[in-house]
Design goal:
By secondary structure, the chain is of the alpha+beta class. The chain has a single domain (13-171), classed as Peptide Deformylase (Alpha-Beta Complex). The chain is 28% helix and 30% strand. The protein has helices at 27-42, 129-142, 153-171; strands at residues 47-49, 59-62, 74-84, 88-95, 98-108, 110-116, 122-128. The strands form 2 sheets. The chain has a 5-stranded antiparallel sheet with strand order 1-2-3-6-7. Strands 4-5 form a two-stranded antiparallel ribbon. Strand 6 and strand 7 (122-128) form a beta hairpin. 29% of the residues are buried. Bound molecules: nickel (II) ion. Residues 95-97, 137, 141 line the site of nickel (II) ion.
């Protein structure tokens, strides 16, 4: 049985950690993956990095399937971007660690990504569209980068202030 875990929220400093590679796919890693899917589907969200449930490992869960369709759970272990297109595309992004905040972000439209799957097999894929945006957003999490880092200083300061204030109120 999977247990949903708590998602850490901005301005939690753990979101700025550099996550460490997964060395071996242990039963604990499989449990973490199950829990991350449960957490992501419950939220609901389309992508989740392990650091968002306070585990600093290079591990991502994703499901880009349509609501009505079959689930398409995907796991990315130690993912890396091998190449990025010069062409850019803009998507309105959100983040489960920055709830109810959405802004347009410009990123490479296509990327080639290498990762290990849950069977320990190394794979390479070309990503485009939502997949390209989502995998770049999630890999950023593994490096302590958030999508608000791509916004203007004015917008970023505003959102940081809002969430810092909310965290202070919640702590009282
Ligand atoms: Ni995110």
């Amino acid at each position: 049985m999977a247990n949903p875990r708590d998602i850490i929220i901005l301005p939690d400093k753990q979101l700025r950690l550099i996550s460490k590679p997964v060395e071996t796919i242990t039963p604990e890693i499989r449990t973490l993956v199950d829990d991350m899917f449960q957490t992501m589907y419950d939220a609901p969200g389309i992508g989740l990095a392990a650091i968002q449930v306070a585990v600093p490992l290079r591990l991502i869960t994703m499901d880009l399937s349509k609501k009505e369709g079959e689930k398409e759970p995907r796991v990315f272990i130690n993912p890396e971007i091998l190449a990025s297109s010069d062409e850019l595309s803009v998507y309105e992004e959100g983040c489960l660690s920055i709830p109810e905040y959405y802004e347009e972000v410009e990123r490479p439209a296509r990327v080639r990504v290498r990762f290990m799957d849950l069977e320990g097999k190394t794979r390479e894929e070309d990503a485009e569209g939502l997949y390209a945006t989502c995998i770049q957003h999630e890999i950023d999490h593994l490096n302590g980068v958030l999508f608000v880092d791509y916004l203007s200083k004015l917008k970023r300061d505003r959102v940081m202030k809002k969430f810092t204030k909310a965290a202070k109120l919640a702590a009282k």
